[in-house]
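Below is a filled-in request sheet from our internal design queue. Each sheet records the structural input a requester submitted and the sequence that came back. We keep these sheets so that new team members can see what a complete request looks like end to end.

REQUESTER: design group, bay 2
PRIORITY: normal
MODE: inverse folding
CHAIN LENGTH: 431
BACKBONE (tokenized):
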């Protein structure tokens, strides 16, 4: 079994180029179906979720090349409408094909991954948005199907909750609909802003970019385009959380501080010293963070749910008591028992997690249960004495191109090893 082994009590030092944004590039790949021609993306991270989307695009008839970090999609003959459970069932982002397929081929039938470790992940808001544009939709077991035999027609779409994925699906469908659409209550994450600029770069008509009200002039002629993906704000936040957890002094290149709204102030509350420069972020911190009285996740520009586990990991060594409340997903505290294995004094109480910060954490055999939880265990490992061995690398590889290499590049001993006795050791040491 492949294990990430991280040697603890290690401050981070040096510079790192941040990978392209996973959550920006995935909807852009879906959007490439809207144009019967060539779309090129640069600064694309080589992560599992991108390779999964490439398989889905090829299954639909697109021709895709991915060399280095440059990805080229020729969707001239991508006339398929079905995404098998083999790939659709493996990645959450497959649902993002719904809007583009309906707009282009007037039909879609996608395997759904269903719930995942952080929550049920329903798609009702996606369905409502497609129905507002004239489609019929239904969900059966682990498939979502939709059809719009007369094509999609511009409409008013109101989101009761700023769902990122539903906003993205509605955007793609509205670009391919006849007439103008007004989207109200949209999510405002930077990845949606970037998707809007990507679509405009293809020829789409979109106003209100960055706000919760988007006006989309559908049916505009689209053309070949090339677009550079911005740096991944959560990958950057992961490195900042590592410095908060173990101390150090780093510079992150290829990311804009403005995209870290919501988490920036929380890092300052942990005692991080941050400096924003064009295209880069400087961060230094002492070897133990301050506690945060209460941290609550919220839709952008609030504190991002994707940073919640990473802050929990750092706050395990906080100087005092911290409380973290998760309001976006119903089951995003799976990391708590794993942090307990490392000696953290942490527990769930009525929908929030209370952490009594400890000076000392110890390396342990732990297991990643989801993408950000896996990265958070590496963050906790940096502040712990001794070596921590993290199983579940496949979760981490979904969203981080080379987390071990990134940490090693910042002066930390992190490497992938083979360890056949991981589970046995987990049982033996801590039952
Ligand atoms: C996106 O997921 C991100 N994934 C997630 O990042 C991120 O945590 C999430 O947005 C919130 O910011 C990608 O962009 C690929 P939502 P998404 O729709 O679109 C409920 C990571 O680690 N909901 O905003 O699935 C849902 O159950 C991943 O990179 C409905 O009820 O998030 C959840 O409780 C994890 N009905 C809440 O809304 C729906 O139809 C937020 O979901 C859709 C969502």
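RETURNED SEQUENCE:
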């Amino acid at each position: 079994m492949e294990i990430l082994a991280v040697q603890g009590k290690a401050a981070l030092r040096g510079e790192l180029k941040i990978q392209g944004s996973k959550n920006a590039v995935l909807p852009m790949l879906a959007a490439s179906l809207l144009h019967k021609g060539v779309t090129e993306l640069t600064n694309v991270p080589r992560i599992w979720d991108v390779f999964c989307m490439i398989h889905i695009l090829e299954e639909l008839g697109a021709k895709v090349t991915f060399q280095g970090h440059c990805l080229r999609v020729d969707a001239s003959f991508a006339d398929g409408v079905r995404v098998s459970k083999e790939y659709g069932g493996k990645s959450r982002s497959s649902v993002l094909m719904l809007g583009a397929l309906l707009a282009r081929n007037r039909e879609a039938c996608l395997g759904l991954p269903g719930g995942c470790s952080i929550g049920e992940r329903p798609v009702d808001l996606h369905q409502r948005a497609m129905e507002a544009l004239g489609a019929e939709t239904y969900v059966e077991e682990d498939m979502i199907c939709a059809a719009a035999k007369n094509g999609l027609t511009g409409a008013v779409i109101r989101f009761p909750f700023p769902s990122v994925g539903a906003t993205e699906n509605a955007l793609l469908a509205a670009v391919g609909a006849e007439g103008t659409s007004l989207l109200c209550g949209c999510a405002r994450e930077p990845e949606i802003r970037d998707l809007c600029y990507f679509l405009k770069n293809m020829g789409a008509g979109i106003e209100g970019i960055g706000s919760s009200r988007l006006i989309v002039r559908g049916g505009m002629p689209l053309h070949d385009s090339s677009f550079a993906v911005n740096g991944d704000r959560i990958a950057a936040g992961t490195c900042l959380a590592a410095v908060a957890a173990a101390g150090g002094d780093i510079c992150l290149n290829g990311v804009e501080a403005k995209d870290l709204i919501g988490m920036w102030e929380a890092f300052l509350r942990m005692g991080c010293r941050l400096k924003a420069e064009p295209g880069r972020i400087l961060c230094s911190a002492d070897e133990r963070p301050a506690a945060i009285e209460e941290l609550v996740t919220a839709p952008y520009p609030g504190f991002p749910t994707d940073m919640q586990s990473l802050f929990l990991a750092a706050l395990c060594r906080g100087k005092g008591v911290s409380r973290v409340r998760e309001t976006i997903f119903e089951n995003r505290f799976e990391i708590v028992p794993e942090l307990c294995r490392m000696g953290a004094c942490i527990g769930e109480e009525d929908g929030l997690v209370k952490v009594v910060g400890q000076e000392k954490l110890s390396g342990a055999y732990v297991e990643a249960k989801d993408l950000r939880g896996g990265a958070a265990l590496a963050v906790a490992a940096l502040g712990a004495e001794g070596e921590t061995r993290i199983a579940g690398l496949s979760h981490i590889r979904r969203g981080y191109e080379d987390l071990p290499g990134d940490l090693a590049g910042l002066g930390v001993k992190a490497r992938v090893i083979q360890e056949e006795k991981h589970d046995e050791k987990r049982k033996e040491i801590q039952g």
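SHEET NOTES:
- The pocket of EPZ is lined by residues 22-23, 26, 92-93, 119-126, 161, 163-166, 187, 305-306, 328-329, 371-372, 399 (CB under 6 Å).
- The CA atoms of residues 12 and 110 lie 43 Å apart.
FILED BY: M.R.
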